Amino acid sequence: MGRFHAGEQALQARLNPALPARMQQMAGPAIRDFMPDQHRDFFAMLPTLFVGSVDQQGRPWASVLSGRPGFVLSPDPRILHVAAKPVAGDPLHDNLRPGAQLGLLGLQPETRRRNRMNGRITTLDDSGFTVDVEQSFGNCPQYIQARAPRYVSASAVPPRRPESASLSPRATAMLAEADTLFIATSADGEGVDVSHRGGKPGFLRVEQTNGATHLTLPDFRGNKFFNTLGNIALNPRAGLLVVDYTTGNLLQLTAQAEIVWDGPEVDSFAGAERLLKLRVEAGLIIEGGLPLRWSEPDYAPQLAATGDWT
């Protein structure tokens, strides 16, 4: 059974016709249908879990759940139980249903560790939900800004402010200042994925054109799995999540997506191998949606080789 779907293989072949075969061979031991013990232990240490889901309209959304360490547990290598529920207003609330596919990302900013697990919901209960493992694999520490978390009091029902295709100044500022974001994608029949992206503050360009907000995200050198872009090649939609690490505010967006492979715009951004263009369709800000605050960032060393939009 292949580890990469047609969209991922097409992008690998674009780099090198021989690459898909090499990647399939490499993926054998790297992408598993169970969680190794070190991943199971890692998820149990985390205060956050990033989740990619798809709504009834087929739109991907990126979300984050939180709890005291131990709220994510793996009682069996093929099962992950999450004892948390989305905050009020998060689209994930309606997307959690038996049989639904999810992309899960565990990320520990202070150590720059991250591991992925994609699977399918088997049960929902009063505490949260359980996911059967379909893919489990690790990611490198590149582009992760190191931050240490601390807990604060959670708001029972945090205020929720909807965003339209033309984002408010507040949402625009969150995007323009971000050094980290999370992106959810989905390809029909191929599951859901949620991935991390990091850069210098301002690495995400924000423009207003024809009544809508358009975003441009540089795509830096990675592991050549092309989980995100491979999904977009088959289904040009994406969900974005930006966390304000000072206030705990969350910005969630869903957008149409397009890959820009080459040209002057790609060349103008140091370190970019290609670009991802996103046209915002809808979104929301959840104020204080995360009961955590973080220290000032220690920027990833890889950022020294990347540019900005100025």
Give a short synopsis of this structure.
This protein is an alpha+beta fold and 310 residues long. The chain has seven helices and 17 strands. Strands 9, 10, 11, 12, 13, 14, 15 and 16 form an eight-stranded antiparallel sheet that branches. It has a seven-stranded antiparallel sheet with strand order 2-1-5-6-7-4-3, with helices on one face. A two-stranded antiparallel sheet has the order 8-17.
Structural features, described:
Helices cover 18% and strands 39% of the residues. The longest helix has 12 residues, at 19-30. The protein has seven helices and 17 strands. It starts with 5 loop residues before the first helix and ends in a 16-residue tail after the last strand. By secondary structure, the protein is of the alpha+beta class. The model has no long low-confidence stretch (mean pLDDT 92). The strands form three sheets. Strands 9, 10, 11, 12, 13, 14, 15 and 16 form an eight-stranded antiparallel beta sheet that branches. The chain has a single domain (6-305), classed as Pnp Oxidase, Chain A.
Q: Shape from CA axes?
A: globular
Main beta sheet strand tally, sense and closure: 8 strands, antiparallel
- CATH 2nd-level architecture: Roll
Instruction: Tell me the count of domains.
Output: 1
Rg calc: 18 Å
Quick check: average pLDDT?
92
Number of helices: 7
Name the CATH homologous superfamily.
Electron Transport, Fmn-binding Protein, Chain A
Which segments are poorly predicted (pLDDT under 50) over 5 or more consecutive residues? none
Kindly identify the CATH topology.
Answer: Pnp Oxidase, Chain A
**What is the CATH C level class, in words?**
Mainly Beta
- The helicity comes to 10-25%
Structural class: alpha+beta
What proportion strand? 35-45%
Query: From N to C, what is the helix and strand string?
Result: HHHEEEEHEEEEEHEEEEHEEHEE
C-alpha termini separation:
46 Å
Find the count of extended strands (DSSP E, 2+ residues). Answer: 17
